[in-house]
Amino acid sequence: MKNLFIGFIFLLVIVYSNVVMSGDISAGEARYSQNCGNCHGPGGMGLASYPKLAGKEIDYLMDRLKKYRAGTKIGPNSSLMIMMAEPLSDKEIVNLAAYLSNVQKK
Questions:
Q1: Residues of the chain by 3-state class (helix, strand, coil), percent to 5
Q2: Which of 28, 44, 85, 86 qualifies as a cystine partner to 68, CB 3.0-4.6 A?
Q3: In contact, 33 and 92? CB cutoff 8 Å
Q4: Cα distance between residue 15 and residue 9, in whole Å
Q5: Domains, the chain, with CATH or none
Q6: Residues of 51-61 as b/e, b for ≥16 C-beta within 10 angstroms?
Q7: How distant is the alpha carbon of residue 94 from its chain centre?
Q8: pLDDT digits over 54-103, tens only?
């Protein structure tokens, strides 16, 4: 019985973590349209010195946004990105990453 309970808890953790990590693509698109597209272009295709984000891996996008949110300078546009990422919640970061990683798959 104890093993069944532990197995059930383990299954809940796996299912819950997949839901959290998958992100909401529609919410990510809505959040992207508020600010991000001004520099990164429609659908994250990149503009001028702002890189293409469309099709990047979720882990990469989340890592970068979290680093910017923490105030870490990464490249030439870091000051702007830090300012834009600071107000993002973890959920918004997951949603943005889900949206941007799926842009080319539409």
A1: 70, 0, 30
A2: 85
A3: no
A4: 10
A5: 24-105 (1.10.760.10)
A6: bebbebebeeb
A7: 4
A8: 999 999 999 999 999 999 999 899 999 999 999 999 999 999 999 999 99
Residue 101 amino acid letter: S
Q: What b/e readout covers 78-99, taking b as 16+ CB neighbours within 10 angstroms? A: eeebbebbeebeeebbbbbbbb
- What does 20-67 look like in DSSP terms, one character per residue? HHH--HHHHHHHHHHTTHHHH-GGG--BTTBPP-TT--HHHHHHHHHH
Which residues, listed in sequence order, are joined to residue 47 by a DSSP beta bridge?
A: 50
Structure tokens given for 46: 């990149």
**Residue at 51: amino acid letter:** P
Measured in degrees and rounded to the nearest 5, phi and psi for residue 50 equal -95, 125
